[in-house]
Amino acid sequence: MKKVVIFGGGSGLSQLLKGMIQFPIDITAVVSVSDNGGSTGRLREEFAIPAVGDITKVLMAMSGESKGVKDLFNYRFKNNSSLGNHSIKNLIITALLEMKGDFAHSLPILCDLLDVKGKILPLTEDNVDLVGITKDGKEIVGEAEITESKSKIIDLKYNKKVTVTPKVLEEIKKADLIIFSSGSLLTSILPHIIVPEIQEAIKNSKAKTMYICNMLTQPGETDDFKVSNHIKVLEKRLGKNSIDVVIANDSKIPKNMTLLAKSEGKDPVEIDKTKLDKMGVSVIAEKLFRVEDGYIRHDSLKTAFLIFSYLMEGE
Prior knowledge:
Blueprint: E1 3-8, H1 10-20, E2 26-31, H2 38-47, H3 53-61, H4 67-74, H5 88-100, H6 103-113, E3 119-122, E4 130-134, E5 139-141, H7 143-148, E6 153-158, H8 166-174, E7 177-180, H9 185-193, H10 196-204, E8 208-212, H11 227-238, E9 245-249, H12 255-263, H13 273-278, E10 282-286, E11 289-292, E12 295-298, H14 300-313
Parallel strand pairs: 1-2, 1-7, 2-3, 7-8, 8-9, 9-10
Antiparallel strand pairs: 4-5, 4-6, 11-12
Helix pairs in contact: 1-3, 1-14, 2-5, 5-6, 9-11
């Protein structure tokens, strides 16, 4: 069975994994743990633990359990209670971290309980914060603060040295394919690849590398970006010619959804194939979107099928 390591965080990674677990692939999801907003931020502050929110989203996406069990774990307490806005899944993993001391001993229990299809690893066990650096050299501490910043963020770092979870490096070494998920470049993907140990491990890996490109730009982060611009952001950290293939949407998004996106400061991301060819990046261009709950999202099954097909072509 082909081994895939996928980096990401938040909704983009979770959406993709829902489809990937339907295929015979050995999946390791590596999740960023520096979010400091919402329920996760409150738990971090109270218990001095790494962020749990993105980890629990990925757990639910990779779970083979029934809808009823997932609904229970996803239940969020009402705001007017002392547990206001905390989800059951966040509280359970926090309890396990208190009991067991780290993700290494906590996650296997939850993975077993939720019948998780694959492996989930935190980037680090350290309780660290992202630091965004603006054009004028100002430092903005915290992922939530970076996301809300009105100033353009030109670089990222952590507030202290990050020790990568050893199993992450082991899985990169064994991988056939390394994927950078769709989602925020700034707060979902870069938190992984600004870490020197990760950069070195990917550089030394024999695996092919793939990027699942966002379908819409993100205000203040990727304004006016085409597919090649996204790749350049990754290769600035990973090195020239470090991305082998990109999966990107080539189908026109419905006008009503385009207008809604535009009202939010977002535009469809265009495939600039000539530039990508010059960069040595292969392009898998397909209709990738579907409308879910009024939002444009990656069709998880279609995207996973394209990933699986690419893996099988390499045999």
